[in-house]
Design goal:
By secondary structure, the protein is an alpha/beta fold. It contains ten helices and ten strands. It starts with a helix and ends with a helix.
Length: about 300
């Protein structure tokens, strides 16, 4: 699956920054291959950057500036709380826990980002910030990333908002924060942390992982529901609860989408019965098409 993703005609920078063909550029000026503008020469400037053709014509000393290509820095935060250990086992393709699926999504995106010689870091979180792998690049980082993701186990409660705010504090440079969670907390609290990331100039990508039964509640008879984050069991009649549950979930999903749209953020719900390569390919295609349209509008 990872090899299939790596062969897509979309690069990691398209996934997380919306630029096409690997064209991720910073507004800083440097000395890379693409010309940006001229400015007047100042004492101390490198004479190699003087445009001697203009000097020959006008006797003016001007310096050529170039767009500096910069490394993308992506932080992938994975929710490891108890609720991420849920699986309904509803079908052969939905037998994986949400954390299993989240780990594969994180590994796939990390694989793509590192393949473009960019930097990626990993953070595991539940009710408190957990183990963290600082951003780096190269083959050693790929191995460390996989090792950390494989070690993740679901346990405890969660406080997404606090975890996202903490992540904002740990990101010293502008980057992309890929947030992978079931996002089952209170939207206002979660988005308080997400807004902290936005306020610091980062771009959060919200990747929601759910079991299909959490959406359709396709159950019958009496059920015992166990709270995976520390609460006691609850016995319910699925026939009585079903309609009200589905209405509540639909409202929750709509609120998440509304808040993400208000901040112009991508919100991608996924279920554990979806092929990861297909889900990410569809997302990449939409993102690349949107980026191409926006770039065309600026020309």
């Amino acid at each position: 699956m990872l090899d299939a993703l790596a062969g897509l005609d979309f690069v990691a920078r398209t996934v997380v920054e919306g630029y096409l063909a690997g064209q991720h550029r910073s507004p800083r000026r440097g000395s890379s291959a693409e010309f940006a503008q001229h400015r007047e020469y100042a004492p101390g400037d490198d004479l190699r950057h003087v445009d001697w053709r203009i000097f020959a014509k006008s006797q003016r000393l001007v310096v050529k500036e170039y767009v500096e290509e910069s490394n993308l820095v992506a932080y992938i935060a994975v929710d490891t709380s108890g609720s991420m250990g849920f699986t309904s086992g509803a079908s052969r393709t939905a037998k994986w826990t949400k954390l299993d699926y989240a780990r594969w999504v994180a590994a796939a995106l990390g694989h793509l980002i590192l393949g473009q010689r960019d930097l990626v870091g990993i953070e595991l979180f539940d009710s408190t910030p957990g183990t963290r792998l600082p951003p780096a690049g190269g083959a050693p980082q790929r191995g460390a990333m996989i090792e950390l993701l494989e070690s993740a186990t679901p346990s405890g409660g969660t406080d997404e908002g606090a975890a996202f705010s903490d992540l904002a504090q740990k990101m010293p440079h502008r980057g992309v924060a890929v947030l992978i969670s079931d996002f089952l907390g209170e939207p206002a609290e979660m988005f308080a942390g997400i807004e902290d990331l936005v306020a610091r100039g980062h771009e959060p990508l919200l990747l929601q992982v759910l079991d299909p039964r959490e959406l359709d509640f396709n159950c019958e008879g009496y059920l015992r529901l166990d709270d995976l984050e520390g609460g006691g069991p609850l016995k319910v009649d699925a026939r009585v609860l079903g309609d009200a549950y589905r209405e509540e979930v639909a409202a929750h999903q709509a609120e998440l989408a509304r808040r993400a749209a208000r901040l112009s953020l991508d919100f991608l719900p996924m279920t554990t019965d979806m092929g990861i390569d297909n889900a990410l390919s569809a997302y990449l295609s939409r993102r690349a098409a949107r980026s191409k349209h926006q770039a065309g509008g600026r020309l």
